[in-house]
Amino acid sequence: VRNKRLRKVINFLRLIHKNKIFFAGFIIFLAYILMGTIGLLLVPYPSPSLANPFNAFEPPSFKHFPLYIFGTDYEGEPLLPEIVWGTPFILEVTTLASVITIGVGLVLGLMAGFMGKIADLILNTIFEIVLTIPGFPITLILATIIHTNNPLILAGILSMFSWAGLAKAIRGFTYSMKKQEYITMARILGLSRRKIIFGEIIYPMSSYILVHLFQDMMFYVFGLVALYTFGFLPLSSNNWGVILNFAISIGGAIYSPLGFWNLIIPLTVIIIYEIGLMMMSVGLGKFVDPRLREY
Fold first, then answer.
1. What is the DSSP letter of 133?
2. Where are the alpha helices (DSSP H) in 133-205?
3. What is the pLDDT of residue 66?
4. pLDDT averaged over consecutive 10-residue blocks of the chain (295 residues)?
5. DSSP structural state of residue 44
6. 207-210, long-range: CB < 8 A, 24+ apart
7. How many other β-carbons are positioned within 10 Å of the β-carbon of residue 161?
8. For residues 276 and 148, what is the distance between their CA atoms, to the nearest angstrom?
């Protein structure tokens, strides 16, 4: 049993390594996971004791390497601890929001497509209504009114209306698949509804669902950072959006070179993370679908 499990793990790693695009994105994604976990043990927590007003907005340097490798903020505090300690919060909120979107969209889409009739009519009507709601301004209003740093609440706000598009797509896939001959044969053979849904309907859609997951994470990273950057959420937590907010509001990064590095460094960190997610999304088709793999 152990040998079989070990072989599966080895084969899994080989598939990842052979898929160059997915592998490169996975390395970037893994680097951010390590930065948000092991990095917390290696980099000191952002503290006023590290601040020196005379060193405010200094450019990156190798002084006390690696502490000042990203330069300093408006208080003269090194940016590296703020970037590293801000990573777990960003990853937690965006991952939660993506899981909520996938979970709600998948369940409701399957219910509508598989059950059909009245259930399909009611659920599809709800999907259409949610898709017509202007989600962006409502997100801004809710973020301003609730004004919290709670990861679960923020994930709920970000994903409040995003699930409807996925649910409608899943409904269409499910509706077309349940009319296929192999689904009819599965019913005749006495397979349970659970086995049909998970084994015969969800599995063929797995690549689409996973691609949607990574794309949602990309979208939510931009959304969450933007909410902090423009001051819709409290600036009391360590995250990349707060750094951008201070770079613009205090350093005048858009109008003067003073806060230039405080703007460029977080944006670069965000863009690299987005590129990693995008590469995983692009390479996922070959990774999930055996027909597209190169042996």
1. S
2. 135-146, 151-158, 163-177, 181-188, 193-195
3. 86
4. 71 76 91 95 89 88 88 91 94 95 93 86 93 91 92 94 92 83 76 76 83 92 94 86 91 84 93 94 70 53
5. P
6. 207/284, 207/285, 207/288, 207/289, 208/169, 208/173, 209/102, 209/106, 210/284, 210/288
7. 18
8. 29
- What DSSP letter does each residue of 234-263 carry, written as one string? -TTS-SHHHHHHHHHHTT-TTTSSTTHHHH
What pLDDT shows up at residue 21?
Answer: 87
Cα-Cα end-to-end distance for the chain: 26
Q: Which two tokens stand for residue 233?
A: 């959420």
Pair 28, 36: CB distance under 8 Å: no
* Rounded CA separation 111/83 (Å): 42
Structure tokens, 280: 């995983």
Would you state the pLDDT for residue 174?
86
Closest by alpha carbon to 242, among 256, 262, 261, 272?
262
Q: What is d(CA 58, CA 198) in angstroms, rounded to the nearest whole number?
A: 55
Question: What's the pTM?
Answer: 0.86
The reported pLDDT for the residue numbered 38 is 95
CB atoms within 10 A of CB 43: 18
User: What tokens appear for 213 in the block?
Assistant: 């997951």
